[in-house]
Each structure stands twice: as C-alpha cells, then as structure tokens.
Amino acid sequence: MEMNRVESKVASDVDAFGWHVILVAASDRAPQFAYTIGLFHTYQHPAVVVIGLTDAKAHEVLNIISAAVKSGARYGAGDRVDGILVNYPSAFVVFPRSAYADYLGVARRFYAGDEFTALQFVWPDSSGRFPWEAGVAEGARATQVVQS
Higher-confidence residue: 18 or 147? Predict the structure, then answer.
C-alpha cells in the first residue's frame, strides 16, 4: 500500500527524531486530542495520548515526554509525575486497545495493526485534582475523556 503525505511525514519524523506528534481536531465523535507515533518503534515505550489540551500545549507536552523517553525516562500506567506541567502533577493511565480504532488511526497504519501499547497522559484541574478524584472541577473531567 502506498503511503499518503501524512504517513510519509510520520515515517520521516520517526526516522529523523524518534517520534512524531499527531494533532486531531475535535469532532462529533471525540474531543480535541493528540498522540505520539514512534516511541514504541524507536524506544520500546508506549505511545502517549493527551485529550482536551490546545494543539500548542498538547504538542509541547508530548514533545517533553518524548524527549524524556529519548533520554531514558520510562512512564507506566499509574505513574504520577512532576516536571511535565509547570506547578502541577500529571499522571499516566492505560489507553485501552478498544479505543485505538477511534483515536489512533495513523498509528495503527504506521504499525500495521494494534500491536503497540499506549498510555493516556492525564492532567489535573487548577487545584491539582485528577478527573477520577472527588471534588475535581467538572470542566477537567468533561474536557478530558479518561480512557481507563
């Protein structure tokens, strides 16, 4: 199968940098989201998905995470991490394979299927509470679809 322009850019970036970030606009089916392609291929690390951040912030966050992975960092489901967001903790949860078809189409083409793992990067509300915690601001819960 011949690669389209996006797939060619993804493959070129993965070869040159180790990863590529895909930005996806909001639609009737899903909120705005972004994800990495290539971390699994290059560093044997799960892809990372972030939902509900602006394109610029999502791109920045995913590049911070990817650069850390390139330098040897490893993130896993259940990890809480400081240093990715300024003044706020963040967390990682499993991104389920049942959601790959709806969210990770270009990655699925890159890997020729679903044989890669993915994590969701989860950000807190302004009080530092995560979407699954009591008292979290409803906006943080509603904006960020938690795939756990």
Answer: 18
Its domain, for residue 24, covers 5-143
Number of domains present in the structure of the chain: 1
Whether residue 94 lies inside any domain: the answer is yes
3-state SS, residue 35: strand
Residue with tokens 């990372």: 48
Alpha carbon 60 to its chain's center? 11
Residue 4 to residue 72: CA distance in whole angstroms: 32
Question: Rounded to an integer, what distance in angstroms lies between the CA atom of residue 42 and that of residue 138?
Answer: 37
Q: Are strands 47-51 and 118-122 parallel, antiparallel or unpaired?
A: parallel
- Residue 148 domain-assigned (yes or no): no
pTM passes above 0.90: yes
Q: Cα separation of 86 and 82, whole Å?
A: 8
What is the rounded distance in angstroms from the CA atom of residue 31 to the CA atom of residue 120?
14
Look-up: residue for tokens 């299927």?
A: 113
Q: For 23-58, write each residue's pLDDT tens digit.
A: 999 888 778 899 999 999 999 999 999 999 999 999
Beta-bridged to residue 143, according to DSSP, are none
